[in-house]
Design a protein that fits this description.
The protein is mainly alpha-helical. 72% of the residues lie in helices and 0% in strands. The structure holds protoporphyrin IX containing FE (HEM). Protoporphyrin IX containing FE binds next to helix 3, helix 4, helix 5 and helix 6.
């Protein structure tokens, strides 16, 4: 559960990143496909070449959705409910993949936030990604 300090740290990260948060999505997704190539099987129709617009665009969508969850920390479930249906029922994404993507986001956040990405900030993001992952996987039960 996110406490007041976690929320403050998440807010601080977001304001430091400003609009670049959406760009982080593309970086994170790019990393996901390189580090965990099995995740590419969900996107057979994507161009996976360097600097692919497909990947950047998809990353932007993911980051926007995460941004909306960040704006609704008291109702992450509500904010992501349609996406949770989509990933469970239509796309059938295996739940392990949400953790893999979260790991990639951690790396990208660390690169952009540098010294600010200390242990407490890392923990706040980790809690956030766990909550998002749980929400995205709920429908599988
Ligand atoms: C599509 C968000 C994780 C596979 C999408 C879309 C969003 C989104 C916003 C676009 C939906 C639309 O166009 O209506 C998220 C979020 C994630 C996440 C917030 C985690 C925090 C994943 C993971 C995978 C995945 C881990 C698989 C490795 C897909 C696929 C599509 C999709 C295959 C459809 C892409 C297309 O054909 O255009 N996701 N996603 N997602 N997502 Fe995710």
């Amino acid at each position: 559960v996110l406490n007041a300090e976690d929320r403050r740290l998440l807010q601080a990260s977001i304001s430091k990143l400003d609009r670049r948060f959406e760009e982080l999505g593309g970086d994170a997704l790019c990393r996901l496909f390189i580090v965990y190539p099995q995740t590419k099987t969900y996107f057979p129709h994507f161009n996976m070449g360097a600097g692919s617009k497909d990947v950047l665009h998809q990353g932007e969508k993911v980051a926007k959705a995460l941004g909306s969850a960040l704006n609704h920390l008291d109702d992450i479930r509500g904010a992501l409910s349609h996406l949770s249906d989509l990933h469970a029922y239509n796309l059938r994404v295996d739940p392990v993949n949400f953790r893999l993507l979260a790991k990639c986001f951690h790396v990208v956040l660390a690169i952009h936030l540098r010294a600010e990405y200390n242990a407490c900030t890392c923990l706040a993001w980790d809690k956030f990604f766990e909550m998002v992952g749980e929400t995205m996987c709920e429908k599988y039960r």
